[in-house]
Design brief:
The complex is a heterodimer. Chain A is α/β, with parallel strands linked by helices. Chain A has a single domain, classed as Rossmann fold, CATH 3.40.50.300. Chain A contains seven helices and ten strands. The longest helix of chain A has 16 residues. Chain A is globular and about 50 Å long. Chain B is an alpha+beta fold. In chain B, the strands form two sheets. In chain B, strands 4-5-10-7-9-8 form a six-stranded mixed β-barrel, surrounded by four helices. In chain B, helix 2 runs antiparallel to helix 9, helix 2 packs across helix 11 and helix 9 packs antiparallel against helix 11. The longest helix of chain B is centred in the C-terminal third of the chain and has 44 residues. Chain B is elongated. The chains are: A alpha/beta, B alpha+beta.
Chain lengths: ~240, ~400
C-alpha cells in the first residue's frame, strides 16, 4: 500500500489560533497517514494538540497551512457548506458527552445525519433501526435519552455515527463519561466496527482505552511524539446484555 | 432536507417550550387583533357616515333662502324668504348639471288621528322630491303630479308619525287624518330612513302636495318660497358643477354684484359626506398605526426569544453541524421557527380581531366590516415581521463555529 492510497493524509499541517494578542500554535507541522481499516488511538495530555488534530481530521476545522487529503480529496480549501457535506457523507462522530437531542427518541436521533443527506423518510427509518440493532439497541428505538443509561446513550450516538455508512468514525473521549465496565463494552463495539472494515480514530488520554487500538499516536506540544503499532487488547463483547439501571 | 421537515423540527422545538412560545406569540396576537379590530371599527364608522348621508339623498344640494341683518344681528339662513318660485323654475330649466329641483315648503303643525294627536313637520312638495332624496314607500303610494296640479288633500306619512298616531304595526293607508283641522287622506307610508347626520329623525314627517300645502296649511299663495329648494345633480361627479351653476343663476337673478355676499346658501351634501369620510379615514389610519406599533413590539419579542433560543441550543446547533447540517439548514430552521411564531400569532390574532370587531360593532350598533384584504395584509405583515426579526438570530446560529458550539457549556 503506497502513501497516496491513504484514506487520511496530512502533509505538514499547522494550525494557529489567535487568542487576544497571542498566537497559539496548536499544531506544528503534523504529517500523518491513516490507512483504510485501521483502528488508531490519538493520545496526549490536554494542550498537546490532539483535539485540534481530531477537529482537522473531522473537517470541523481547516488547517492554517499544509494539506489534508481525505480519500484523495483536498479539503483544505473547501467552503463551510462543502465541509458539512463531507462530514455528512464520509465521517461519523462520537463525543464524550454523547450529544444526543433531548426529548427526541433514539431512532430520531440516529436519523439526523440522513435527514441532512436528504434520504426519504421510509429509508431513513429502515437504516436508523438497522444501525440501532447493530449496536444492540433494537428494542429501544423509541426510548428517549433520559430513559437510557450512559452506555446506552453512547450506543445511540455510535449508531448515529454509523448510519450514513461513513469511511471513518471519529470518537473524542468516547468512554470519558462512562464507568470502566461500560467503557470496555463501548470499546468492544468500536473493535467490532473496525473488524467490519470501518476506520476508527479514537482520541483519549487513558492508556487503558488506547490499548484497544492497533496503533497509538502520541501528541505533544502540537507535534507527533511517537507513532507505534501494537496488538490490540480484545474487549469483551456483550452489547445486548447490558441491563438498564 | 425539505421545508416540510424543517417545519417539523421547528414546531417540535417550539412545542418543547409551550408557555414561552405562547407568550412570545402573544405580542403578535395582540398586534394583529388590534389592527383588525381598529380597521373594522374605522370601516364601520365610515359605513355609518355613508349610510346616514345616503339616507339624505343622492347627489344632493340644498338651497336655503338668505339671511336678514337688522342692527348688526344676523338672523341666520332661512330667516328671510329670498328664494322665489321663478328662481326654482330657472334652476330647473337653466342648470345643465341639475336633474331635479323641488321646493320643500315646511311648517310645523299638529296632526290628528281619530283618537291621537302629534305635532310634527309638514312638508309641501312635488313627487320629484322623493327621487332627489331617494326615498321610497313602504305601504301605499306617493302622490302624483296630478295630485299636485289638482291640489288633492292626500298625505304621505313617515313611520314615526304612524307609530305615534296609529301604533307601530298599523297600516293607516286609506284612513284620514287632520292637519291644522283640514282632513287629508293617507295614501302612503315611507320606508324607515333613520336619523340624519345631525341627529334629526327623518321619519317624523308628513308630506303633502305643494299646492295643497300653499292653499290649506300655509294659507295663501306667495311669490317667495317658505322653505328650501332640494336639488338633485345629474351624477355624483356633477354635484360641484351643479352647485356652481345654481349659485351663478341665483346671483344673476338676485342682481348680486361681485364681492357682495350671497343672499342664499347652497349646501353640498356630497362634499359634506366626503369631508366626514376623510375624517373617519384619518381616524382609521391613526388607530391602525397605533395597533401596528404593537405588532412591531411583538416582532422585537420574537427576536428576543429567538436569540435566547439560539444561545440555549448552541450545543444542538453544533451537533447538527457536525453530522452534516449546512449553515443554510440551520438558518432556515431558526427562520422557520420565527415565522411559525409570527404567522401562528397572526392567524390567532385574525380570529381574535374579528371576534373583537364583531363584539364592538354590535355594541355600537355599527355594521361589521372586516375586509378580506385587510386580513391578508395583516397576516402578510406578521409573516414579514417574523422574517425581519427572525433573520438576525437565525444568521447568528448559522454562523456559529461547530467546534465552539459543540463545546459550549
Amino acid at each position: 500500500m503506497t502513501a497516496d492510497d491513504a484514506l487520511i493524509r496530512l502533509d505538514d499541517v499547522t494550525k494557529v489560533y489567535r487568542m487576544g494578542d497571542v498566537d497559539v500554535h496548536a499544531l506544528r507541522g503534523v504529517t500523518l497517514r491513516i490507512e483504510q481499516g485501521e483502528i488508531i488511538a490519538i493520545m496526549g495530555s490536554s494542550g498537546s494538540g490532539k483535539s485540534t488534530l481530531m477537529n482537522v481530521i473531522g473537517c470541523l476545522d481547516r488547517p492554517t497551512t499544509g494539506r489534508y487529503l481525505l480519500a484523495g480529496q483536498d479539503i483544505s480549501t473547501l467552503h463551510r457548506s462543502e465541509l458539512a457535506e463531507i462530514r455528512n457523507r464520509q465521517l461519523g462522530f462520537v463525543f464524550q458527552h454523547f450529544h444526543l437531542l433531548a426529548r427526541t427518541s433514539a431512532i430520531e436521533n440516529v436519523e439526523l445525519p440522513l435527514l441532512y443527506a436528504g434520504v426519504p423518510t421510509r429509508e431513513r427509518r429502515r437504516r436508523a433501526s438497522e444501525a440501532l440493532f447493530r449496536v444492540g439497541l433494537g428494542d429501544r428505538l423509541d426510548h428517549h435519552p433520559n430513559q437510557m443509561s450512559g452506555g446506552q446513550q453512547q450506543r445511540v450516538a455510535i449508531a448515529r455515527a454509523l448510519v450514513g455508512n461513513p469511511k471513518v468514525i471519529l470518537a473524542d473521549e468516547p468512554t470519558g463519561a462512562l464507568d470502566s465496565r461500560t467503557g470496555v463494552e463501548i470499546m468492544a463495539l468500536f473493535q467490532e466496527l473496525w473488524r467490519s472494515g470501518i476506520t476508527v480514530v479514537l482520541v483519549t488520554h487513558e492508556p487503558d482505552i488506547a490499548a484497544h487500538a492497533a496503533r497509538v499516536l502520541v501528541m505533544k506540544d502540537g507535534s507527533v511524539r511517537s507513532d507505534e503499532k501494537q496488538t490490540p487488547r480484545l474487549a469483551e463483547h456483550e452489547p445486548a446484555t447490558e441491563s438498564t439501571p | 432536507m425539505n421545508t416540510l421537515q424543517t417545519l417539523r423540527i421547528a414546531t417540535r422545538a417550539l412545542m418543547r417550550n409551550k408557555l414561552r412560545s405562547f407568550l412570545t406569540t402573544l405580542g403578535i396576537v395582540i398586534g394583529v387583533s388590534a389592527v383588525i379590530a381598529m380597521v373594522a371599527i374605522g370601516e364601520g364608522a365610515k359605513a355609518q357616515v355613508e349610510a346616514s348621508f345616503a339616507s339624505m339623498g343622492a347627489n344632493l344640494l340644498i338651497v336655503l333662502p338668505g339671511t336678514t341683518t337688522s342692527g348688526g344681528a344676523h338672523g341666520g339662513f332661512g330667516s328671510m324668504p329670498t328664494l322665489t318660485w321663478d328662481d326654482l323654475k330657472a334652476i330647473q330649466s337653466e342648470a345643465s348639471g341639475v336633474r331635479y329641483a323641488a321646493a320643500a315648503l315646511r311648517a310645523t303643525a299638529q296632526v290628528l288621528s281619530d283618537d291621537q294627536n302629534w305635532t310634527t313637520s309638514v312638508t309641501g312638495t312635488i313627487p320629484e322630491y322623493f327621487d332627489i332624496r331617494a326615498w321610497s314607500v313602504a305601504h301605499g303610494a306617493l302622490f302624483s303630479v296630478s295630485d299636485v296640479e289638482g291640489g288633492s288633500k292626500v298625505a304621505v306619512l313617515g313611520q314615526t308619525v304612524v307609530d305615534k298616531l296609529y301604533g307601530p304595526s298599523a297600516d293607516p293607508v286609506g284612513q284620514s287624518l287632520r292637519i291644522k283641522n283640514v282632513p287629508f287622506q293617507i295614501i302612503g307610508v315611507l320606508a324607515k330612513k333613520g336619523q340624519s347626520p345631525m341627529g334629526q329623525d327623518y321619519d317624523d314627517a308628513v308630506f303633502v302636495p305643494q299646492t295643497t300645502f300653499q292653499a290649506k296649511i300655509q294659507g295663501g299663495l306667495s311669490k317667495f318660497l317658505s322653505g328650501a329648494v332640494f336639488v338633485g345633480a345629474t351624477s355624483s361627479s356633477n354635484t360641484a358643477r351643479a352647485e356652481k351653476q345654481v349659485i351663478a343663476i341665483l346671483r344673476d337673478r338676485h342682481h348680486i354684484m361681485p364681492g357682495i355676499d350671497d343672499d342664499f346658501s347652497v349646501r353640498n351634501l356630497t362634499e359634506m359626506a366626503s369631508a366626514q369620510e376623510a375624517g373617519t379615514k384619518t381616524l382609521t389610519t391613526l388607530l391602525a398605526a397605533i395597533a401596528a406599533v404593537s405588532l412591531l413590539v411583538g416582532g422585537i419579542g420574537i427576536m428576543n426569544i429567538m436569540l435566547v433560543s439560539v444561545t440555549e441550543r448552541t450545543r444542538e446547533i453544533g451537533l447538527r453541524m457536525a453530522v452534516g447540517a449546512k449553515p443554510g439548514n440551520i438558518l432556515s430552521q431558526f427562520l422557520i421557527e420565527a415565522l411559525t411564531l409570527s404567522v401562528g400569532g397572526g392567524v390567532i390574532g385574525v380570529a381574535l380581531g374579528v371576534f373583537a370587531a364583531e363584539r364592538l360593532a354590535s355594541s355600537f350598533g355599527w355594521p361589521l366590516l372586516v375586509q378580506p384584504n385587510v386580513i391578508f395584509l395583516v397576516v402578510g405583515v406578521s409573516a414579514s415581521v417574523g422574517v425581519v426579526f427572525g433573520l438576525y438570530p437565525a444568521r447568528k446560529a448559522a454562523q456559529l463555529d461547530p467546534i465552539d458550539a459543540l463545546r459550549y457549556e
